[in-house]
Design brief:
globular, about 35% helix, alpha+beta, 7 strands, four-stranded antiparallel β-sheet, about 375 residues
């Protein structure tokens, strides 16, 4: 991401974003090996740092479920039929009691039924085979339900490395908060980040997998679902820390929004994060070069470890340029967005991952129900 950081003592200078690609010095990163990437997977670091992070549960996933995630169709296993029927009478009293989301779900179900009927008309035998192969994962759903209950009724999901945060737009809350297995499956199926974990996680690795040198691995040998207890994080208090040769070299604000109050507590935040690193992280993580994300509670009394990532170009350097992080002989000052103007220059997160083009074209500021109806009509028209 381009750096738009402007030192506070130079507020009048124009913001001219530059990228690492524009620097004259070639960037030399520590080799990104299969093992270094594995070290950043959740199940690798969680046992060591369990007491520092959010309460979590690791659930191994079967190959059948991984195949379901990789399949094109977005059918949610275990979903019950929706009995709600939309009335053609706009003046119906009952319609006032139906939420937009219930209407949206009903239209989804109607679209699904139409697709099944179309398949049946074209090839009955093929439809029977497809029905027999519909995904069904009762044991996984039961384990998810038990974990959600244990965690107070709300969780957020991720796989080995990534969470489906690019797919939050599809959730009714626009967050990763999940109350049941269907919520989780929909997020996982809709996320490009999850698809990357399952098919391209190792593509930037410089070594070959295994002692036999079997080449670049395409996906992890064991895919796991991680359910983490949900609590509302204040985005302003999330920070990314960069470690080179086991030394903390930089701390950056994580959310690319300007928060005016942060400048007043900058020194306190930096001191707390440095102490946390030196007392709880330094020398305990497997690698000497890595990044880690932390969250500081609103009362600033506790720091949570959120995640680890490789010290590699594939990791977002946020308000730094990688050249600084690779070459600085000492720790760089904590970086915060200096102004609202700087925040407006930052690329919106997941801007290219959010909505399919059809969704964008059809939405045009409509309510959920209005959009769903327009989408349903388009599906009907395409089936004619």
């Amino acid at each position: 991401m381009p750096s738009v950081y402007v030192p506070e003592d130079q507020p009048d200078q124009p913001i001219e974003p530059t990228t690492d690609a524009e620097t004259s010095t070639p960037l030399v990163f520590p080799p990104l090996t299969h093992q270094r990437l594995e070290n950043c997977s959740f199940s690798s670091w969680y046992p060591t740092f369990r007491s520092l992070t959010i309460k979590s549960k690791i659930i191994p996933l079967s190959e059948d479920f991984v195949s379901y995630l990789n399949a094109d169709k977005v059918f949610i296993p275990g979903q019950s039929g929706i009995s709600l029927a939309l009335s053609d009478d706009d003046d119906s009293d009952d319609d006032d009691q139906i939420s937009d989301m219930e209407k949206f779900k009903a239209l989804q179900e109607a679209t699904h039924r139409q697709a099944q009927e179309s398949d049946s008309d074209s090839d009955a035998d093929e439809d029977e085979d497809e029905e027999a192969a519909l995904p069904y994962f009762p044991e996984l759903e039961d384990e998810i339900a038990q974990t959600i209950a244990e965690f107070g009724g709300e969780v957020f999901p991720k796989l080995n490395w990534s969470s489906p945060r690019d797919a939050s737009w599809i959730a009714t809350t626009n967050t990763l908060k999940c109350h049941n297995a269907a919520d989780i499956f929909l997020l996982l199926k809709s996320s490009d980040f999850i698809a990357h974990d399952l098919a391209h996680a190792y593509e930037d690795c410089s070594d070959e997998a295994g002692e036999a040198g079997s080449g670049i691995r395409s996906r992890p040998e064991n895919v796991v679902l991680i359910l983490r207890k949900w609590f509302d994080l204040a985005p302003s208090m999330e920070f990314r820390c960069f470690v080179r040769d086991n030394k903390l070299i930089g701390i950056s604000q994580r959310d690319m929004t300007f928060y005016d109050f942060l400048k007043d507590i900058r020194e306190e935040l930096e001191e707390k994060i440095v102490d946390f690193f030196e007392e709880r992280i330094q020398g305990k993580f497997t690698d000497s070069d890595y990044t880690f994300d932390v969250y500081i509670t609103r009362n600033r009394e506790r720091i949570y470890l959120i995640d680890f990532n490789p010290f590699a170009q594939k990791t977002d350097s946020l308000l730094y340029q990688w050249e600084e992080l690779l070459t600085s002989p000492e720790q760089l000052p904590l970086r915060l967005l200096p102004s609202e103007e700087a925040g407006r220059h930052m690329q919106q997160p997941f801007a290219f991952n959010r909505y399919p083009s059809d969704v964008t074209d059809l939405s045009n500021g409509q309510t959920v129900a209005e959009f769903a109806e327009a989408f349903y009509k388009k599906v009907q028209a395409s089936a004619v």
